[in-house]
What does this fold into?
Amino acid sequence: MIPQIILRKGKEESLLRRHPWIFSGAIDHIKAESEEDFAEGALVEVYTHQGEFIAQGHYQGGSIAVRVLSFDREPIDQAWWNRRIAVAHDVRRTLRLLDNPATTCYRLVHGEGDSLPGLVVDIYGTTAVVQCHSVGMYRARMEIAEALRTVYGGRLTAIYDKSSQTLPYKAHVGAVDGYLWGHAASAAQEVLENGQRFLVNWEEGQKTGFFLDQRENRELVKRYAAGRTVLNTFCYTGGFSVYALSGGAREVCSVDSSERAVALAAENMRLNFGDTAAHSEVVADAVEYLREIGDRYDLIILDPPAFAKHHKVLGNAVQGYKRLNARALSQIRPGGILFTFSCSQAVSKELFRTTVFSAAAIAGRKVRILHQLSQPADHPINIYHPEGEYLKGLVLYVE
It folds into this structure.
């Protein structure tokens, strides 16, 4: 018997709107033959207080108690996984990301955006990198790998699981990163993004090895970079730096607190431009570095890690974004361009824009919004799950 979760009266409203999360406070009681049946990651059915089936999904401890896999009563078997991966694959075909000689890396599965909450799959050439953010997805990882092999056929040579750092810390499933199928010749492989070359290491790098969500925003930096002196803060592997120099920047400076990240940025610059690139790198805390930059730069990129992982620290995060942007806005050269981002899901695009507005007022500069940016289409937003719009960005012209 599949465990049954019975909701409190009236708590089915969000599910009727097809929101894919059920919070613990909405649950009245659970029917199961034993407690083991609804352990972390178990498949459960959800019913209204009146006893009507409404959804099924993965059970987990914490605030989000169920992540919905389907609003239909259907078997969650291998055929189901094959269908879901095939649909995600077809979306990327529509986006012309498959078999694109200029871009060999993209996101195939983006959690709720692809109706697979708790799952991320990124493609790097012929390797798929899987990250499970829920125990339910982790327990289904072999079915996911089989679905990837079914859909891609001979176009995949390896499937790597990198879930050990993304699973809930109380999961206790003993996750160890490794290959679910096949094996890559090397963990560090070269990929192309809009014709730019990057070394990606999915075994040791952050996330799945590369920040794929900034692909289109990096291309926009390239458009504005000609003749400018560029500062790329929180540079990680130097994605924005490579695009800026490719766009004709006079010189580029990459700053990150991680020595390894700065070394990777320098390596990617050499990969694209050789040893004579007009590029410098600095190992420093970007927030501190922005204290005394003077008027050296007329294009600045602020792409910090998430300042707010959850709403409890939202106030501190807002102050952090405000301080960071005020420092950049007060010192950028007249006529300068500022690219500023937030990847904090807890920070709405309205709140982010208001925060940057406050920073501009503190800096006392005349500022125009040229572009309002988001994540690319291979990081889709489920229309019933607006929380999935996590990446916000503004491009500002500063007089």
Summary: The chain has a mean pLDDT of 93. The CA atoms of residues 339 and 395 lie 5 Å apart. The two ends are 66 Å apart (CA to CA).
